[in-house]
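Repro case for the chain-ordering regression, as requested:
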Amino acid sequence: MLADLPISVLAQKLKRSEITSEQLVAECYDRIEAYDGTINSFITVVDRKKAIERAKFIDAHRETFPSPLAGIPYVMKDAYLTKGVRTTAASKILDAFIAPYSSTVHQKLENVGAILIGKMNMDAWGHGASTENTDYGVTKNPWGSDRSAGGSGGGPAAAIASRFCVFGIGEDTGGSIRNPAAWNNITAMKVTYGRVSRYGAIAYASSLDTMGPTAKTAEDCAFVLEAIAGYDAYDATSSQKPVPSYTKALDKSIKGKKIAFPTEFYGDALDPNIKEAILVARDIFVKEGAEVTDVSLPLLEYGVPVYYILAPSETSSNLGRYDGVRYGNGRDLFTKENMRRIMTGTYALSSGYYDAYYKKAQKVRSLFIKEYEKLLSEYDAILSPVTPIMPSKFGELLDDPIKNMMADLYTVIVNIVGLPSLAIPCGFTKDNLPMGMQLVGAMFDESTLFALGNAYQKVTDWHTRSPNLVNS
Amino acid sequence: MSTSRETNFRYNGSMNASQPNPQPKDAKTVVTRADIDHIATLANLPISDGQSEELTKQVGGTVAYVSQLQSLPTDDVTETSQVTGLENVFREDEIDTSRMFTQEEALANAKNTYNGFFVVGRVLEEK
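-- result from build under test --
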């Protein structure tokens, strides 16, 4: 099927008129209609006729759309405002909300001619690691229907794995892009804080939120990031640093690249299958010319406590605006998990406790930054698991706040520091469940991660595998 | 769907709301039911008795868990709130007409409007 092909090949075929965008979009819709009844990755499917019309328009005006993403169907986590298409954040509070303006990321993709076909399932307001805290029904993992697709962006990840689209746009506050990537056998880039505009993305925790690409490969993610990265006057926290060519960085040699391997990350908390898979990947990097060295990052265990003070605090403030006056329904419709986080955050910020919790967490955040800055001044990347556990069975993470938090063990630290991280597939268990690893890089050095990821994917084929879907 | 104005739009800045113990708490922190009820008022969340009980346990568990940070010495550490070091990002104080909504657009998603205005809940109470 066409959605199996890399963006580079699709772009070439479209340019040479060997295929049409109409054909590609239609094929995606056929698959959605056949299989998404079971997977439930979409909250809103864009009207097929509208998407086809747009595809025909791009086909007819191809010379005015030189981008490799022109005519390529994509999806967005339902946390992005898309003018004219409903945006829910997977919460009934926004069940009928149609944004009067578009997020910058959506606008940029529209401008280059990419075709939005859906708004995707997630944990409501980004609160969760399993897409079970959604008001629109759980997303089933295409690799095992009794298992979660991860979260909070389980929808876009499951859709890419299922080949319902060519790429997706996620949002990562504590692992929401990377955790579902690992559990669905796809590739995803959590960008440096400020690399991609947050304008028009529904805020979870403003000092941690990042917007990034999810796709089949590092190469595809590079194409997408190149289109969406950059300064935006509408987001004061977006960076003015120039955007390098990520696609040119892909084929840079990784010989002599130094990769740190933090031994604390490979202890008892980690599923032995994942550990084994990453040890194999470690050898592959060595074989490809990189140097991998054991290092120590002793602060690991404090990452989850820092995150679960900062994120709930910031979300309690951000979600304060949803009072049902200007848009949406009332606050009684927050899910249990939403209420837990809002309550925890309000508690941490309330008079008398601020210093002990929020301020303390911001201080420990500085310790993390120092530790990572030092390590990344000596190394090009850190090799880490994405999740400590295999895709959870439904119910396993619900109503157990601590277990739910521990699913984020390896991902939240990256957001606390603000670093970029590329999540890539690194194998399967004997039960055919996918596993992922992440390469964490220095601030604004997505390029090195793309080079490492691409080198790994050139000599492995995990990323080419797709699940056998059952007709719904 | 209908929402209760009483529940959703009550005035929450009341000076009479009960105050929790204002002392910073240590790792042995116990979150009480009264804390939860107070916090729910601050957060403008309508919660039932059953939810209040459940949240007392769950928020208490989370607070106890995150309190392990207290054991890390941070006396000489400055806190970080912005990881890329930006400070005071200003823009010109000019109207950008391309981003202005018409009144119709601004009201399009509101459940309750009157003569082109948003209808808001009562925030003041009669004595």
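Ordering looks correct now. Chain A touches chain B through 65 residues (CB under 8 Å).
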